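Structure ticket #2291
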Amino acid sequence: MDLMLNDLLQLTDDEIANSRIELNMTAGAGEERFVDRWLKSEDSAKESGLAECSYWPWYGEKRNFQIGQTVFSFIQIGYDEWLFISAATITEILPKQRATVSILEKYKGLFGRLVVSYKKGQTHARYVFRLDKLLPNIKVKEILSCRYSGDKFEGYDNVNLKYSMLKDIFDGKIMPTYHEALEKITGVYCLTDTSNGMLYIGSATGGGGVWQRWGNYLASKHGGNVKLRKLHELKGDAYFEKYFTFTIIEYFGLSYDPNKIKDREQHWKRCFDTIAHGYNDN
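Resolution: structure written out below.
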């Protein structure tokens, strides 16, 4: 059974009748996409619902909404995917300006996280609608574990993360899809010291997969490895945070034979000669 938008909003019939919905695509024909504008906004603007992507009250000389109405604002992130970015009551409308609004605090936790599906089509000009007309057909697609960042998991073959990005993923700030993806696999990985090109080849064979193993590096920087520990003693945390990247070389399911993964780890150490010229010690 589909979860519909009002299952989350919990609006009464009277509230629905007094509400409008924005489905914003671009800032005009051929102009900047609103999702790009929103992504470039300050975090405080995204969190507060006050990024300059919403509440334009004019369509020519006509008003899109009136003082006292509630407006729910969405921006397009896919053909029929819309990200909830704000909800507010209109408090003032002035000529050729964005309306002054009072943000609805109870919905703030969903700003930038709630994704719905609705087939609007590619009509850019029409973007404000009566909520009661659309609400029965707007489905909840997902609620992201962190604010939408525009980044999506694009496959294990493309995992190549700077230390700072990996930390933001672990802290739940960006790319929530990476968490689930990385804890589903074991495998062989490579740490690259971009200051000198030296490599460390390692493997993840535990129940938490690559996610758990890489979490050990974030916690300790060296992951318990002899040469990396010595490097950490010499250079400190800041060196690892600035120069290290994380890459997956080969990946397997969680039930894959750990001994075979270890064999593949040794294979890649020989290929890259990381014992003699990298950070591996055995």
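Closing remark: The mean pLDDT is 92.
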